[in-house]
Amino acid sequence: DRLGRLGSAIRQALEQRRLREVEKERLSNLRRSETMFRALFEQAAECIVLHDAGRIVDANRQTCERTGYSREELLLLHLWDLNPDLTPESLSRQRAALERGEDLTVEGHWRRRDGSSFPVETSPGLIHLEGGSLTLAFARDLTARQQLFERSQQAQRMEAFGQLASGVAHDFNNLLTVISGLTHLVLEELPEQDGLRA
User: Fold this and answer.
1) What is the pLDDT of residues 155-181, one digit of tens each?
2) Burial, 138: exposed, middle or buried (Cβ in 10 Å; 0-12, 13-18, 19+)?
3) Contact partners, residue 109, CB within 8 Å, separation at least 6
4) DSSP readout, 90-113?
5) 3-state SS assignment for residue 157
6) Which residue stretches of the chain have pLDDT < 50?
7) Which residues are CB-neighbours of 52 under 8 A, at least 6 positions away?
8) How far apart are the C-alpha atoms of 81 and 24, rounded to whole Å?
9) For residue 157, how far is the Cα from the chain centroid?
10) Which spans in the chain are helix H?
C-alpha cells in the first residue's frame, strides 16, 4: 500500500512536470507566433487598421506614417475620423456583407492629422476571436496610381492635340499648295511689266 502510494505520487509528479513542459512549449510557440504576426503587421507596405465597429483597436507603422498620427493617437479615434465618408451605418453594412462572405474593395480618401487627404483603396476582412470578431482593413495609398493616371490622361490630351495640330497643318498645307499653284498660273498669264506680279 505504501509502495502503491509512492508510485502514484511519482506518476502525479511526472504528469505535472510533463504538463508544465507542454504548457511552457505552448506559451513559447504562442510568443513566437505573436512575434511573427507583429513583425508582419509592422513591416507591411500597406496601412493596416484593426477595428471594432469603427473604433480603432490597432494600427501598423505604415498607417502612422501615412496619416501623421502616433499609434496612441490612432487608438483614440474611430475609422470615420480617418475616412469622413464612413459612418457607423456604412460600416455595419460592410460588416454584414463580409459576414455573408462577400469580398469588398472600397475607394475613398483618408484624412491626415494635418487636415490634408490622400486616396485609398480599402479591403476589409473579418478576424474571428474568442468572444467575437474584429475587422482587419488593408488600405493601399493610391496617390502614385492617381498621379500615373493623371500623367497618362495628360499624355493622351497632348497626343490628341498633336494629331489635331498635324491635321490642321496638313489641311493648311493643302490650301497653300492650291494657292501656290494658282499663283503660278496667274503669273504665267501676266506680262513682265505688270504691277500685279509683285
Assistant:
1) 677 777 777 777 777 777 888 888 888
2) middle
3) 83, 84, 85, 117, 118, 119, 120
4) HHHHHHHHHHTT----EEEEEEPT
5) helix
6) none
7) 132, 134, 135
8) 42
9) 27
10) 2-43, 61-67, 71-74, 79-82, 88-99, 143-189
